[in-house]
Amino acid sequence: MAKISAVTKMLKIANRTLLSLREAAKLYNVSVNTLSRHAKIGTLPTQRVTGFRVVFVDTEDLERWMQEHYQQKRAQRARQWWAKRKRKRQS
């Protein structure tokens, strides 16, 4: 049976822990829009549980997404920013 915590939107089903997108965003310091965008395009697997109006994400899937997609995007943006700054200095 599904058990939901009153304090947070954390759902425990069997041995899996599911977090709402809002709680996951707070925990990993990412915006809710970023998580929902990645859920919509399919890079972050999410689940809807019957009886709840909240979209849940598995903590293991969230960790994998942070490593594979989110960290790479941040690193790419940082490299682009530094390259742009370097070009400005040379000018």
Describe the overall structure.
By secondary structure, the protein is α+β, with helices and mostly antiparallel strands. The protein has one domain (3-90). Helix content is 55%, strand content 20%. It is built from 3 helices and 5 strands; from the N terminus they run βββααββα. The chain has helices spanning 21-28, 32-41, 59-90, and strands at 3-4, 10-13, 16-20, 46-48, 55-58. A 5-stranded antiparallel sheet has the order 1-2-3-5-4. A hairpin with a 6-residue loop joins β4 and β5 (55-58). It is elongated. The model is unreliable at 1-7 (pLDDT under 50).
Low-confidence stretches: 1-7
Strand content: 15-25%
- Mean of pLDDT: 80
Number of domains: 1
- DSSP strand count: 5
Shape verdict? elongated
The largest sheet is: 5 strands, antiparallel
Strand order of the largest sheet: 1-2-3-5-4
What integer value in Å does the Rg equal? 17 Å
Relative helix content? 40-55%
| SSE pattern, N- to C-terminal | EEEHHEEH
The span between the termini is 64 Å
**Helix/strand/pairing class, anyone?**
alpha+beta
Number of helices: 3
From the structure above, extract its key features:
disordered N terminus, 20% strand, 91 residues, 55% helix, five-stranded antiparallel β-sheet, alpha+beta
Nutshell version of this structure?
55% of the residues lie in helices and 20% in strands.
